[in-house]
């Protein structure tokens, strides 16, 4: 009996993966869970896998990165197979489209343009090409094409960058800081007597300005917040460890004690502990 090619490990790994996904989605012999999925149900997994790739990079865990990239690739294959099942497009169409786009966006590599230009000029050229692509899709507004499904903080930065290209931007970082103080005061006022919806609106305004400040300081706010999340996790773990040494848990402690331990954890990190 011939061996099942999906169970082998041939040199050409991509066709094997595509075949595995086709079989998982086969209406008669596939996996019931995979068959039931659609673009909407799979999309959250796609976003999650992209963040797990970023997490592996943050931790410099290259073995984990290999695995997480595989998980992310599976998401692309999954979406492409769903599209193929609906006669919308197939994986080859996806690969062909991105290859064509990369060639078109790099005329200084694949065309006759000179490579002798600065990174800043290449960025301007890249944006001009993307603007032309958006125009072909009838996306003529400055903010057209910024995906609604992006994480809100990332989308805020992208919207602000687009607006800045046409001059809608504060020229000085100090002006952003002034706006930050203004929005902070408005949030405090809202919290004192406005509705939850109005408070949420003011909170959004404050976060939007924070994203703008990060952009002016050339800081990726998503990366900055991930770093702070990791720092908080490390320091709180130390608090738990030191409390455990005294036979206690955090819920058996109080804010004053844990705050003192937090300060100790900060000093511990600064000392290289």
Helices and strands in order:
Elements: H1 13-24, H2 32-36, H3 39-58, H4 62-85, H5 91-105, H6 107-110, H7 119-136, H8 152-165, H9 173-191, H10 196-216, H11 221-245, H12 255-270
Distance between the termini: 61 Å
Largest sheet: none
Element string (H = helix, E = strand): HHHHHHHHHHHH
Nearest-integer average pLDDT: 90
Overall SS class: mainly alpha
Question: What overall geometry do the principal axes of the alpha carbons give?
Answer: globular
Instruction: Tell me the name of the CATH class of the domain at 5-105.
Output: Mainly Alpha
- The helix tally amounts to 12
Quickly give the CATH architecture of the domain at 5-105.
Answer: Orthogonal Bundle
As a whole number of angstroms, the C-alpha radius of gyration is: 25 Å
Q: Helical proportion?
A: over 70%
* CATH topology value of the domain at 5-105: Helix Hairpins
Q: In the CATH hierarchy, what is the superfamily of the domain at 5-105?
A: MazG-like
Which terms summarize this structure?
273 residues, single chain, Helix Hairpins, hydrolase, globular, 12 helices, mainly alpha, ATP diphosphatase activity, NTP-PPase_MazG-like_N, Nucleoside triphosphate pyrophosphohydrolase
